[in-house]
Amino acid sequence: MANLLSQGCGIRISDLASPEVFTDIGQVVSISGPDGSASEIDVTALDSSAKEFVIGLPDNGSVSLEVIFDHASATAKHDTLYTARTSQVLQHFQIFLSDSPETVLDFQAYVSQFSLALGVDDKVGATFSLRISGAVSIT
């Protein structure tokens, strides 16, 4: 998996049907995350010689998608993401890498934020934040 390029990577969203069908989210400029962490639980006792910790449950954090926004495009799925934010329905996503066979990060998340980015002499951009709920599997 060494020397993978970002070109050819992407993210898919499920239709939540049975069986599930995943569709690429179009016009993605960048993907950041998952950016999770785990809490530290202090288990230092009076007879400890130094601070002691155990790691708590993992919080798999969030994924951020920057897109060239096109709400009218059925293939871009930006309308689906926007609707998921307002409906607050847990969605199923897959980030895929450009290797072969394809490495896939599979997770469920809520679309928690949407933000337009407008500027002089620039495209209409948007950022969607996905708040992960549960585990992230990598296959």
Nearest-integer average pLDDT: 94
List low-pLDDT spans. none
Helix content: under 10%
* Protein structure class: mainly beta
**Biggest beta sheet attributes:** 8 strands, antiparallel
Principal-axes shape call: elongated
State the order of secondary-structure elements, H for helix, E for strand.
Answer: EEEEEEHEEEE
**Beta strand count:** 10
Q: Report the radius of gyration as a whole number of Å.
A: 18 Å
> Termini distance?
12 Å
| DSSP strand content | over 45%
Q: Report the total helices.
A: 1
What does the model show?
The protein is mainly β and 139 residues long. The chain has one helix and ten strands, in the order E-E-E-E-E-E-H-E-E-E-E. The strands form two sheets. Strands 1, 2, 3, 6, 7, 8, 9 and 10 form an eight-stranded antiparallel β-sheet that branches. The radius of gyration is 18 Å and the shape is elongated. It starts with 9 loop residues before the first strand and ends with a strand.
Short note summarizing the structure:
The chain is mostly beta strands. Helices cover 7% and strands 45% of the residues.
Provide tags for this entry.
mainly beta; 8-stranded antiparallel sheet; 139 residues; 45% strand
Topology:
Layout: E1 10-14, E2 22-24, E3 28-32, E4 37-42, E5 53-59, E6 62-68, H1 78-87, E7 91-96, E8 104-117, E9 125-132, E10 137-138
Antiparallel strand pairs: 1-2, 1-7, 3-6, 4-5, 6-9, 7-8, 8-9, 8-10
